[in-house]
Amino acid sequence: MAEKVTAYRFDRIDETLSQLNREDCAIIAGGTDVMVLHKSRRGVPPKFSKPIVFIDHLSELKQVYQTDKDLHIGACCTYTELLEHPLIPTPIKSAIKTIAAPAIRNRGTVGGNICNASPAGDMLPLLYVYNAKVLLRSVNGDRFVAISDFIQGPRRIQRLHNEIVTEIILPSVLEEGTHVIFEKVGNRNADAIAKVSFAGFMRINKERIEDIRFAFGAVGPTMIRSREIEKKLVGKTLPLADAEIDTIVAEFDKIIRPIDDQRSTAVYRKTVALNLLRYFLSLKQ
Amino acid sequence: MKLNDISTSVPKKDHKGKVSGQLPYISDVKVENMVYGVLYRSPIAYGKISTIQLPNLPAGYEVVGSEQIPGPNYVKIIKEDQPIFASEWVNYIGEPILMLVGKELNTLYRLLNEVKIEFEEHQAIYTLEDAIYRKSESGVTMASYEFGESLEIISAIEHGAHQIIEEEYDTGYQEHVYLEPQGMLALYKDDEIIVQGSMQCLYYIKNALLSALACGEDEVRVIQSATGGGFGGKEEYPSMMACHVAVAARAVKKSVMLVYDRSEDMVVTTKRHPAKINYRTSLDKDGNILSMCVDLFLDAGANEGLSSVVLQRALLNSAGVYKIPHFHAKGFVLKTNTVPNGAFRGFGAPQSFAGIESHIGHLSKQAKIDPLEYKRKYLVKQGDPTITKGNFRDPVLMEEMIEDLLYSSDYKKKKEDFQRFNQQNQRYKKGMGTSLFLHGCGFTGSGERDHIKATVKLVKTKNDHVSLKISNSDMGQGILTTLCKIVAKELDISYEQVFYPDPDTKEVPDSGPTVASRTTMIVGKLLERAARKLKTQWLSGVEQEVEEHYIHREMIPWNEKTFTGDAYPAYSWGVNFVEVEVDTLTGNVRLEKVYANYEVGKVIDERIMKGQIDGGLAQGLAYGYLEKMTSKQGKIQQKSISDYGPPTSLDVVPIDSKVFDNPYTDGPYGAKGAGELTLIGGAPAVQSAIENALQTSFQQIPITPEVIINSLWTKEGEEG
Ligand SMILES: Cc1cc2nc3c(=O)[nH]c(=O)nc-3n(C[C@H](O)[C@H](O)[C@H](O)COP(=O)(O)OP(=O)(O)OC[C@H]3O[C@@H](n4cnc5c(N)ncnc54)[C@H](O)[C@@H]3O)c2cc1C
């Protein structure tokens, strides 16, 4: 017989938070990572060692709104909902279109993608270059954490067991004048896990780089971003000289250390990551 | 519904059950007194079992192994080299050693973890290269054939040649990825074991069971259940599973169900043979071919299975659709300690066609001639000899089919446009490639006459319903529909009056396996003749039965020893044009357009044929650039569909296809085989398109982004 699992599905977020405060639970949003992670062999239900708490129906976690130039995205918004929302920036929408296939996009959430903290999570490179902040809530109140601090390694996040991620905030994302791209390299065009991914962000003022950011996915334990390298480009004029591009590529060459696995090779991942970087830096704005 | 033109599509017989989701597959079945089986598999690639330690089994849980097999411990296929349960030596990771049976899968999985087996490990052969190196050691070469022009003559020609080109070509694994993983159920009765499941070949299974159970004809019975795809993966593999469940059912006196989950299926079931093919071709100063030698090596995996027959077809197709002067070929099936390879749509031909199309394409570059133009110089015509001194005796429409595609694809202009595009675009490069191919229909040589000896039966009831009694499986390819159409049309009765119940060996004669593109052509022809006979005897309101037996077409007799004669009674033909765009930063290949012309005699149902074309091409194209499976130290690395990467609907583009009529007298309404043909041209066309885009050559498939990036990167390195 299947073992019993306790499951909670409260109508309100405060009840959910109280329960989480009382008891360590496994949070399920869309469940598209959780169910795979807890999968058993054929014919046997998934196994959970903790009680389950469902949060995907909580309306507080499904809002998308703007304050000043900042964009707030509810953690439990599904990909499909974000695709249909007018406030969501185009680069995020194009990234979403590379994720899974429609059925999974109807369930999967952005909060789940962050909390799953996979090196190949497809929302992450863009969230890194947008300097996204994660809003966590517990019975003790709210706190903000930068995404790069929140994600600490594969499946490792800075969340206390009584906290829920309620929002993802993209600061100043609705300002004009930035150029943002996302490229995902998978083994096929749908239902593929990234072998390499790249996000680039650039704000230019009269040919001069005001701000520039890069993030690489699936080439390390988590997203690779270097503010130090980025700083070297601030103030430079476009188009960049070949030597300047070579320097930046060489610096990333030193810090990108991918692995061989069943999906690709380290050499491939590195070559392609650097190719995409070089291409982004060479683009004539 | 009365059928006017046989090609006009009708609703498929299984349409409603499938689209409504009501049709039960074997894993949906539950019967009384049923237990599950799970297999303990070898964790090592090669070695000897030293000790087996079983956990304490709870009541109702039992273990089944080689001791419980009433007959000899091998799966009857061709050679006696594949144990049902390994009892002394293990030869690959995943080889079944024991089966645990009991009511709850959960408990079975736990018990499986508690089984402790110790082995004495031996040095395994993990790669085809290693096997080639050791091919003269005992047991490594499992089969070999050699034929064609004498090597003395070739040597003399090479001596006087302007140039000799040598190329080595590698092809990878391919996994079937049928939607429904393998599954088999043995129903236990006191006097009979009924084996039911997903399968292509009822009588292969029945014969394997007669041997394993050492029992009489009427003590076993095989029934096909709805089968969700086969592609050859359910040709010989299910025989082993059938032995597992039947032996277990006998031993525990209960019905036993064995169903694989996807990752188990991907890791332990048969795949397409990886191959290495060496070409040695002598040319004159204008780049014309003077002679060609082909050496072909197939990685059989741990046991021979059907590999020798796969090698035969690979060799028979080693010259492609070309008339090559002074041709010589040699081939080997080699053992490695890896998962056994087996039947897969095309059966050796896809490897050979990928290789020869690649090689001829590269020769055309030497001669500085457009590849298609160069290929046409050597294209076989009606009346030409085959490489085994047989004859292409039927009309060959390849020239018309090529001309048609040159026109509809606007080949010349496209190639020029692409060249311009490539000069302007740094990142993306477009290319156009072609492939020319054929497929021999039915069993090789005299197999149909000497081994298969197909028989079909038609049974008419009092209310004038007619049932097909044959042992062939519909696995999604549509024969439930097409074969009923043939019978309805011949009898001039409505299609709804003709039935094709799930084949059951108690009810149906052996009309042969559902393989080798033989079903429509061979079994369909027998049914057409049976229907004609029934029509002449037709008495309304009376039960009637007719039977027909295979008749061999007069040909040049096939000699398997000398590899001479007509290897096939007939051939189907194809031409593919493929346009791609390659991302030089990532190596990703995007299909842009696919054109396909085929000649299969006569189409029995247009929509079903289109299904074969689109599915076959998707699978064939993917074999060339997308699907990638690798084995490391004897272990398959890709255990999930997403890691392996078969094409999704976003990877395949609409396929512009056309089928040419060329009726064949010994096929029903002129039909020949179509199922395998459609896969064969995909990989070579995609390879030549990628080569055209990047202006480079590759010596392998699949041409993955990793291969492309590696080649672009090395080229730059050399320049620098
Ligand atoms: C077939 C398939 C294809 C996929 N393809 C892709 C792909 O292309 N790209 C990609 O990036 N991913 C892919 N995924 C993974 C997955 O769909 C995504 O990561 C998705 O965003 C997860 O969201 P979810 O809501 O389903 O998360 P869940 O599975 O519900 O949760 C994931 C983790 O986050 C925690 N969690 C979720 N929400 C919160 C919250 N608000 N607060 C605190 N903790 C929380 C959960 O406890 C769990 O640990 C795929 C998955 C499948 C099954």
UniProtKB/TrEMBL annotation, chain A:
Matches recorded under Gene3D superfamilies: 3.30.465.10, CO dehydrogenase flavoprotein, C-terminal domain
Domain of life: Bacteria
A GO molecular-function descriptor: oxidoreductase activity
Domain (FAD-binding PCMH-type) ranges: 1-175
UniProt KW keywords: Flavoprotein, Oxidoreductase
Species the sequence originates in: Pseudoneobacillus rhizosphaerae
InterPro entries noted in UniProt: CO_DH_flav_C (IPR005107), CO_DH_flav_C_dom_sf (IPR036683), Diverse_Substr_Oxidored (IPR051312), FAD-bd_PCMH (IPR016166), FAD-bd_PCMH-like_sf (IPR036318), FAD-bd_PCMH_sub2 (IPR016169), Mopterin_DH_FAD-bd (IPR002346)
The protein's name: FAD-binding PCMH-type domain-containing protein
TrEMBL record, chain B:
Domain Aldehyde oxidase/xanthine dehydrogenase a/b hammerhead: 20-123
EC code: 1.17.1.4
SUPFAM superfamilies: CO dehydrogenase molybdoprotein N-domain-like (SSF54665), Molybdenum cofactor-binding domain (SSF56003)
Pfam family of the protein (one): MoCoBD_2
Keywords: Molybdenum, Oxidoreductase
One MF annotation (Gene Ontology) recorded for this entry: xanthine dehydrogenase activity
SMART domains reported for this sequence: Ald_Xan_dh_C
Name listed for the protein in its UniProt record: Xanthine dehydrogenase subunit D
Organism whose genome encodes this protein: Pseudoneobacillus rhizosphaerae
